[in-house]
Specification:
single chain; 382 residues; alpha/beta; Rossmann fold; formyl-coa transferase, domain 3; 6-stranded parallel β-sheet; 14 helices; 36% helix; 15% strand; elongated
Length: 382
């Protein structure tokens, strides 16, 4: 389902989180037009982040380029920009400039430190943003340095994806009120928000921000961790709840090695963790990854092999879901998400039924830069 069909998004250009947000909007059916400098015309775009988009060139150093961008914004529902604060305003493409042309426009902004504050003009990248937010110091094992999962937290989870949430919320408001909104998406804000559950746990006495690697979900608990196997692979264990923990222990046949009887032990108690960890590690290391897969097959113990990307692409469940697809040029793509299913009319019992979930189909391949300039100008009468 193309749930955003009829929505036009203008991407003023940028890297990382802005293009990712625009990709998600395009995946959901929006018409996304990205602007790039004329000197890059003919160059390939990112084959994944720029899929499903239309590409135009506009020279922001010329009056004609600015006029083209303004004309496009006047006919768009959403504008996305990722410049340093104040840059769009200096170009005549700031929120006030474009709202004068299109009062209902949703103006989405994505930066590392936000539109205001002492660091708003400071250069940076994902790693610095999550470091500044306090989140980086929470990630990693006890006794080691902080660890980071590539640039997934600041750029994408706390940046681009949060921008999508913001502009779609603002679009709903604009269509109700006719009044546009400026969406200030800062990656430090988003990274901090992603840590909400742990902030809550801290207030409940269930988490210590000053004890990296000693908490329930940060490799402190032995029942929520990754372990090596006999063939130098890794297996993930996440048996948090008592029923899953009991199934894990029984399947490995290590019940007699627990510090207390299985029916009585509170495995969330940190005092038990130093005793349980070597027991789990030894039992898991005595099996190959394939043996563990077979051993835990059919058991709800929250145990999963750590797959390589190549293995993930051939996993039967992932193939059933269509988690990956290969486009017409042979490029491997992550499938659009989430999926949407249309509800049907209520049944005789009064309960609505659903057609289930389905993807919107494979997005168009990314164009070369500038490929759609003439076509868009003609279509919109610019």
């Amino acid at each position: 389902m193309a749930v955003l069909k009829g929505v036009r998004v203008l991407d003023l250009g940028g890297i990382g989180p802005g293009p990712f947000a625009a990709m998600m909007l395009a995946d959901m059916g929006a018409e996304v037009i990205r602007l790039d400098p004329p000197k890059t015309a003919g160059q390939p775009m990112n084959p994944v982040l720029d899929r499903g988009k239309r590409s135009m060139t506009a020279d922001f150093k010329s009056e004609a380029g600015i006029a083209l961008a303004r004309s496009l914004a006047a006919k768009s529902d959403i504008v996305i920009e990722g410049f340093r604060p104040g840059a769009a305003e200096r170009l005549g493409l700031g929120p006030d400039d474009l709202h004068a042309l299109n009062p209902a426009l949703v103006y989405g902004r994505i930066t590392g430190y936000g539109q205001d504050g002492p660091k708003s003009q400071k250069a940076g990248h994902d790693l610095g943003y999550i470091a500044s937010s306090g989140l980086l110091n929470q990630l990693g094992r006890a006794g080691g340095p902080p660890q980071f999962p590539a640039n997934l937290i600041g750029d994408f989870g706390g940046g681009g994806m949060l921008l999508v949430v913001g502009v779609l919320g603002a679009l709903t408001s604009a269509r109700t009120t006719g009044i546009g909104t400026v969406v200030d998406t800062a990656m430090i804000d988003g990274a901090n928000l992603l840590y909400s559950m742990m902030h809550g746990f801290s207030e409940m006495g269930m988490w210590r921000h000053d004890a990296r690697g000693h908490n329930l979900l940060d490799s402190g608990a032995p029942f929520y961790d990754v372990y090596p196997t006999a063939d130098d692979r890794y297996v993930s264990v996440a048996c948090i709840e008592p029923a899953f923990f009991a199934e894990f222990v029984r399947t490995l046949d290590i019940e007699d090695r627990l510090p207390e009887p299985l029916g009585q032990i509170d495995h969330w108690q940190p005092k038990h963790w130093p005793i349980m960890r070597p027991v789990f590690a030894e039992a898991l290391a005595s099996h190959t990854l394939a043996e563990l897969e077979e051993l835990f097959s059919g058991h709800d113990a929250c145990v999963e092999p750590v797959r390589t990307m190549a293995e993930a692409k051939t996993d039967p469940h992932n193939q059933h879901r269509g988690l990956f697809y290969t486009d017409e040029t042979g490029i491997d793509q992550p499938a659009p998400a989430p999926r949407f299913g249309q509800a049907t009319a209520p049944t005789s019992t009064g309960a609505a039924t659903s057609t289930g979930t389905a993807s919107a189909g494979q997005p168009r391949r990314a164009p070369v830069i500038g490929a759609d300039t003439d076509a868009v100008i003609a279509e919109l009468g610019l």
